[in-house]
């Protein structure tokens, strides 16, 4: 490919609307173009990166006995009605009607389509286990697309579904997939991805893991134990809390607190720390608008994922209107007005004397002891683990919170979909059983953006050899020099004959322009041919990651370059082998 | 791949709802599954066929300097409003709204998205020409999906768009693409595809061609001149008609014709042939409901494509209601009621004395001479060419009508999209100009189904080696025989090591079951290992198309099979080279 003919624009300046580096560099480098909110077109360099990622995924899925299939993007609503998700999933599921008024949805995940595909095939136990996967476009009507390809509405995803006759068999297969995923990320150039326990959310099921690329710009929070290595998405991490020592019970007492509206203000007024208070966080059910009050210790935050999963319905932050019996700023767990759904976090049990709202304008209580004062109440874990918190695995106070981008996830789904969609097989005794499912997803574009986030400098992406749009970037400095041009043209052809992917910049532009374009395209090996080097009988070879800068004799350049490419590919292969041995 | 583990069901019987063979065989063979009207999932064998087709297309597009990109499936309505197609395209364009009420459409073609992608890039003449293409899912809300993958609503398509600074340059590129398409179909195993001139329909533009696989089950009609080889879609073929000799003018005369309602009845009543009559065919504008009457010679049919293109609006067959001034059964061109849109076919000029309706209940005219009796009327070509018609190229009466499946199309679009979407470049004089576009489409699934339609017998598909799901189908007859199994297992592994794609049937089933499954999968080379053959020191090798049946010594089987595969691939390559030399 000649750079001169590469469709797409490159920009010197960082676009002002890009919050993260990978987004900015992909716009600057002519990788993609904005079409609509969360919807992008891809230019050739990104398409090539994504196709290489797809091929890596395909090989690893085939290696664990996956069969590539294809599900539709547009699905009949009836399939989602079978599973119950047509109503249970919120507005991220895009619903529409065709010319005959039939209800359709855009596939945002394909459990239903998959069960529909294999329901008749999998009717006897001898067919199991099996796994099918696809690499296909999905659409999720996200409320807040962000970060370029990190969170989009339309994306290409590999989604895989496995079917088993026992939990044990699922776990065996899950472990194979767990390793295959580690290999995929290592082969894509980011072996540093960590695996964390996660919440399975709307997918249903119990055990699930996320593959996280740790980076400050990630939108997920991950709790990692610095002592034992435990890691989990904060959404899924149990928040274990110690009882606060040295607090004596005292009588519950109402206090006049004019002009005090927040938990911070009441603690300041009483000269007590935040963890001796109980705050109220109010939500509403997304469908009915019913109010839900969550009571949690004043120093903690509500974990909305745990809360949603406990409630089993979608929630939104509350808009407290005049007809609501709740007294904004004075809400507390004691004497709560009737008819309000209340959820009590376990943290309320850690302190025997707390301040809280009195459900009366301008009044608070002090001395609340939840166990003594609140009758018939159950306590749940709906708060977020914090830095310095207790590790749910080793029990040490060694939790640190990091940010990460989720680049993949794997779920043990159980029988949620096979039961609701009535997929059964006859076991070896002739008894009907529901197959047990696993599902396994990777977003292709997000993975490309994550690699970019992990591997870049101020001047552009630094692509790993395995997924780079091209392997070699050949720059002919001074295209008007006949001898240099003849050599560069020949090198371009000879490298391609050897199967090397070359992008060739033979434009008549300044070397500076050439090199900054090369930096943006991030091709691993750069070869510079110039009249000055020609005189010394060599060309310059360097690596985009700055780990090598050398020259090669003109007649040895092809073999030197070929070796560098092979060596880089080999390093990545070894890294993939080693992540799984670990 | 072991057949035993291949997900999908195979059926002995032809499903009753399949009108054409390719559809029936693809259902019977476990290639695909119905999901909704015109929407299918693909099992692994079809996915593999389609991926091979995609790769052939990709290679041929790359060879004519195409750059692979990716446009979104979901597009903002605003893009289609720019081109005017948001309103001009009918209900096959699926329109919907997202969670914020923004209007979206599902991409059924991507001219708009493409212009949006390259509009800023292509601002100076030095960037031209260029071509970008994608292979992506499309959705077209067809009124009548049919024939399995032949006419679906959701499909994978390769669509390419080229941009030029002159008509001459477009034509040069168009010719390259014309050849590339011939190569693609030859490489997919159907070099017999014919190229026909076509109507460009809603795409706009002028010159266009369709690639047709001639088959009685095709939904397109193609006019082919048996003398000069001219070919065109009937929709696009000019209908040249001779003046009927020996007809004398006579006065226009009203005749009482009770109980006569059709043109056949009036001709029978008058004892005149159909080509001495003028019939009326009534339509309505799809949007406004206005009536349109087309007058055409009694023996001809209206060509709705030509008519739509002349009118510039969508039409539907008319529902004549009581308040309509038209007298159903008695409509004629003379004294037509006011306010009716009338279209006059050129065929009316071929006969100087015709019968026709009198626009009055129970009356007809005889002796109509259009040129004499109809004032201020223009004549257009809106009728269909028939078998025996005059070739528009050589002028001989040598037209035959065949049926065909359109497997690809290429269009010279002109500036329709660049003008409406305001894409301009500065030419070498610094003057702003609109680029001239071409576009080029191939439906991947339809091509797979067409190959199946062209290459099958009663027992299954006969895949060409280049796109077969696997290259070799290895059957182990009597899986319980230890020696035979050991050999077959080794052959399976050895062939795969040689890069041959093998599907291996080692099930403990009757040979008949095994072979009928093999017929359905249609893999080109079949290898049978059985205890009986083992005794003779050989295995059986045959071709699915019955052109070869042989045996190979056990230690030579790998090389014999490898040679057959290579030879078949080579034959296809040569066929692709020869279609273009023609």
Structural commentary:
The structure is a homodimer of 582-residue chains. Chain A contains 15 helices and 31 strands. Chain A is of the alpha+beta class and 582 residues long. In chain A, strand 14 and strand 15 form a beta hairpin. Chain A folds into 3 domains: 18-73 and 107-228 and 402-454, Bira Bifunctional Protein, Domain 2 (BirA Bifunctional Protein, domain 2, 2-Layer Sandwich); 253-380, YbaK/aminoacyl-tRNA synthetase-associated domain (YbaK protein), CATH 3.90.960; 470-581, Rossmann fold (3-Layer(aba) Sandwich). The model of chain A has no long low-confidence stretch (mean pLDDT 94). In chain A, strands 3, 7, 8, 9, 10, 11, 12, 21 and 24 form a 9-stranded mixed sheet that branches. A 5-stranded mixed sheet of chain A has the order 16-14-15-17-20. Chain A starts with 20 loop residues before the first helix and ends with a helix. At the A-B interface, strand 1, strand 2, helix 2, strand 4 and helix 5 of A face strand 1, strand 2, helix 2, strand 4 and helix 5 of B.
Task: Please give the structural blueprint.
Two copies of one chain form a homodimer.
Chain A: H1 21-28, E1 32-36, E2 39-42, H2 44-63, E3 66-68, E4 74-76, H3 77-83, H4 85-88, E5 95-97, E6 103-106, H5 111-118, E7 130-139, E8 154-164, H6 167-187, E9 194-197, E10 208-214, E11 220-225, E12 231-233, E13 253-256, H7 263-270, E14 278-285, E15 291-297, H8 304-311, E16 315-317, E17 341-345, E18 354-357, E19 363-368, H9 370-373, E20 379-380, E21 399-414, H10 416-420, E22 425-426, E23 432-433, E24 436-443, H11 444-454, E25 456-457, E26 460-461, E27 472-476, H12 482-497, E28 502-505, H13 511-521, E29 525-529, H14 531-535, E30 538-543, E31 549-553, H15 557-581
Parallel strand pairs in A: 3-7, 15-17, 17-20, 27-28, 27-29
Antiparallel strand pairs in A: 1-2, 4-6, 5-6, 7-8, 8-24, 9-10, 10-21, 11-12, 11-21, 13-19, 14-15, 14-16, 18-19, 21-24, 22-23, 25-26, 29-30, 30-31
Helix pairs in contact in A: 1-11, 2-6, 2-11, 6-15
């Amino acid at each position: 490919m000649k750079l001169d003919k590469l469709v797409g624009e490159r920009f010197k300046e960082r676009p002002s609307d890009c919050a993260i580096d990978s987004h900015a560099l992909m716009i600057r480098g002519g990788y993609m173009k904005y079409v609509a909110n969360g919807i992008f077109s891809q230019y050739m360099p990104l398409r090539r990166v994504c196709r290489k990622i797809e091929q890596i995924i395909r090989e690893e899925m085939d290696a664990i006995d996956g069969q590539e299939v294809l599900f539709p993007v547009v699905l009949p609503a009836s399939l989602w009605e079978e599973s119950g998700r047509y109503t249970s999933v919120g507005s991220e599921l895009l619903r529409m009607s065709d010319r005959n008024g039939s209800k359709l949805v855009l596939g945002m995940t394909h459990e239903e389509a998959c069960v529909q595909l294999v329901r008749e095939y999998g009717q006897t136990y001898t067919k199991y286990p099996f796994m099918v996967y696809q690499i296909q476009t999905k659409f999720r009507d996200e409320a807040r697309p962000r970060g370029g390809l990190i969170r989009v509405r339309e994306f290409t995803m590999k989604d895989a579904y496995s079917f088993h006759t026992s939990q044990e068999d699922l776990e065996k297969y899950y472990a194979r997939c767990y390793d295959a995923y580690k290999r995929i990320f290592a082969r894509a150039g980011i072996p540093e991805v960590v695996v964390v326990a996660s919440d399975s959310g709307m997918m249903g099921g119990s055990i699930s893991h996320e593959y996280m690329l740790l980076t400050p710009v990630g939108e997920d929070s991950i709790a990692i134990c610095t002592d034992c290595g435990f890691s989990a998405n904060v959404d899924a991490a149990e928040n274990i809390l110690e009882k606060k020592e040295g607090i004596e019970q005292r009588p519950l007492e109402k206090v006049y607190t004019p002009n005090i509206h927040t938990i911070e203000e009441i603690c300041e007024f009483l000269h007590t720390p935040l963890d001796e208070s109980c705050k109220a966080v109010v939500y509403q059910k997304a469908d009915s608008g019913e109010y839900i009050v969550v009571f949690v210790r004043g120093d903690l935050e509500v974990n909305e994922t745990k809360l949603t999963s406990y409630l089993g319905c979608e929630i939104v932050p509350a808009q407290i209107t005049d007809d609501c019996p709740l007294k904004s700023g004075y809400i507390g767990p004691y004497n709560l007005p009737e008819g309000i759904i209340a959820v009590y976090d376990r943290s309320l049990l850690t302190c025997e004397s707390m301040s809280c709202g009195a459900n009366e304008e301008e009044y608070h209580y002090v001395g609340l002891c939840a166990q003594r004062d609140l009758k018939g109440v159950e306590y749940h874990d709906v708060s977020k683990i914090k830095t310095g918190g207790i590790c749910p695995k080793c029990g040490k106070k060694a939790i640190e919170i990091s940010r990460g981008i989720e680049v993949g996830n794997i779920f043990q789904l159980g029988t949620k979909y096979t039961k609701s969609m009535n997929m059964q097989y006859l076991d070896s005794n002739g008894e009907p059983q529901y197959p047990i499912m696993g599902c396994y997803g990777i977003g292709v574009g997000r993975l490309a953006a994550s690699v970019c986030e992990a591997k870049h400098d101020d001047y552009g992406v630094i692509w790993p050899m395995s997924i780079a749009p091209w392997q070699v970037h050949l720059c002919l400095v001074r295209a008007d020099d006949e001898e240099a041009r003849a050599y560069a043209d020949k090198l371009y052809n000879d490298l391609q004959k050897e199967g090397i992917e070359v992008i060739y910049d033979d434009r008549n532009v300044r070397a500076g322009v050439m090199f900054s374009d090369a930096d943006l395209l991030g091709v691993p090996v750069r070869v510079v041919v110039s009249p000055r080097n020609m005189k010394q009988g060599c060309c310059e070879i360097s690596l985009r990651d700055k780990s090598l800068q050398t020259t090669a004799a003109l007649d040895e350049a092809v073999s030197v370059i070929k070796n560098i490419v092979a060596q880089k590919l080999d390093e990545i292969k070894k890294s993939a082998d080693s992540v799984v041995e670990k």
